[in-house]
Amino acid sequence: MTDLFSQDPTSSDVVNDVTANLHQPLAARMRPQLLQDYAGQKHLFGPGKPLYEAISNGRPHSMLLWGPPGTGKTTLARIIANRCDCHFIAISAVLGSVKDIRKAVEQARLHRQLGKQTLLFVDEVHRFNKSQQDAFLPYVEDGTFVFIGATTENPSFEVNNALLSRAKTYVLKSLQKDDLQEVLKRAINQENSRLENETIQVTKDAEDLLVAFADGDARRLLNLLEMALELVEQDENNHRVIDEPTVKPLLGENSRRFDNKGEAFYDQISALHKSVRGSNPNGALYWYCRMIDGGCDALYIARRVVRMASEDIGNADPRALQIATNAWDVQQRLGSPEGELAIAQAIIYLAIAAKSNAVYAAYNQCMSDIKSEPSFDVPLHLRNAPTKLMKSLDYGAEYRYDHDEQEGYAAGQVYFPDDKPEANYYQPVDRGMEKQIKQKLEYLRSKDRDFRKS
């Protein structure tokens, strides 16, 4: 069987030079060739699982592998090619073009004539534009090659529908702690097996730091291990010991995964918003801190907090909007860390405040009506009359000035267009301040009914 793991990632030519392999980064040398050595993604593998059955039976199908960096997308594609005895071609959408696709098609057709199936792997497929993605369609359709695309972005947004319909999407998850520990152990054992006069050891504290900092990313873990190996010297027992003091200088401040404006970004702001809506201040604070720790612009979060105050709290507690805008102002005036603390205060207040989406629902319904109805004229009694002509046309003639009416309310006065029935958009809830607002509105509506009966 062809040794797919000694190939250049942009070529199908086999490289047999063993010394060249030894000069590859540790993450590349550690790339497993067999499914049983593949770490993580247990939700995809096991008897009865479609992907597991396809690989086990040697019947690959076109697919999209969607997941965070370092979760094994490229490795899995190579394992499938190896297990199913396919000619493997890899293209990077970062550097590739339609010309590269044509070359891949030519190679695939040649191998097809020789009776060998081709697997075309496209890394970062979301970086190809729609027309470039369309170039794959006829060859996926006629079986010229099995297509596997890898992406860190949501395929629903980044991959065109025609390609989506021809490829099964599999979601790869961040590696868990035990998965990363397995990867680390295998890497150390493999390095020790190729060394003659020394052994490598990693202390428990150092292992915990490496695994935590890797944050579900096997490539990051192996890169850190490789850097640590370069820093330590042999001791008198021919051991190289990687301990906590060795590892700590390698770790930057930001170890958490946060793809600004990417999938993780929108997932986390959604989690923050829903935690506030669900009156869970602890969950809300957690997602807020995750985003700040990941490098999110605090002003973006401040704007979203203002939105939460109107959308999910509204007039049940009007102070929420004021507190949210105050926090935004503090962030603009003082920056970090004072502004971030003010935003945290606002988030916690919003989470525990009485909730109402009555304003949000009323606004949406009113906008929907306006977009679907004619542009009704303003009734004459509601129009202003700054000129003699307007007065002669009865602009404002029948308007009743509320301050001159009993209780400061012109009962029965109509504020909708003549040709549109009065709508009841705003329906306050029985929570917070809106409970009193609801009572006030019910009282005013009763006065309107009494006026119209008289």
The parts where pLDDT drops under 50 for at least 5 residues are 1-20
Structural class: alpha/beta
Enumerate how many helices there are, as a single number: 21
Provide the β-strand percentage band. 5-15%
Helix content percent band? 40-55%
Order of secondary-structure elements? HHHEHEHEHHEHHEHEHHEHHHHHHHHH
Strands of the largest sheet, in order across it? 2-3-4-1-5
Indicate the mean pLDDT. Answer: 86
Q: Report the radius of gyration as a whole number of Å.
A: 32 Å
- End-to-end span in angstroms? 96 Å
How many separate domains make up the residues? Answer: 4
CATH superfamily of the largest domain: P-loop containing nucleotide triphosphate hydrolases
CATH architecture of the largest domain: 3-Layer(aba) Sandwich
Q: According to CATH, what is the topology of the largest domain? A: Rossmann fold
Structural description of this entry:
This protein has 454 residues and is of the alpha/beta class. The chain folds into 4 domains: 4-171, P-loop containing nucleotide triphosphate hydrolases (Rossmann fold); 177-250, Orthogonal Bundle (Helicase, Ruva Protein, domain 3); 263-352, Zinc Finger, Delta Prime, domain 3, CATH 1.20.272; 378-453, post-AAA+ oligomerization domain-like. It has 21 helices and 7 strands. It has helices spanning 18-22, 26-29, 50-56, 73-83, 98-113, 130-134, 137-141, 155-158, 161-166, 177-194, 204-214, 218-231, 244-247, 263-277, 281-293, 298-313, 319-334, 338-352, 358-372, 388-392, 433-453, and strands spanning 63-66, 87-92, 118-123, 146-151, 168-171, 199-202, 239-242. It has a 5-stranded parallel beta sheet with strand order 2-3-4-1-5, with helices on both faces. The protein has a two-stranded parallel ribbon with strand order 6-7. α5 links the parallel β2 and β3. α10 (177-194) packs across α11 (204-214) and α17 (319-334) packs antiparallel against α18 (338-352). The radius of gyration is 32 Å and the shape is elongated. The N and C termini lie far apart (96 Å).
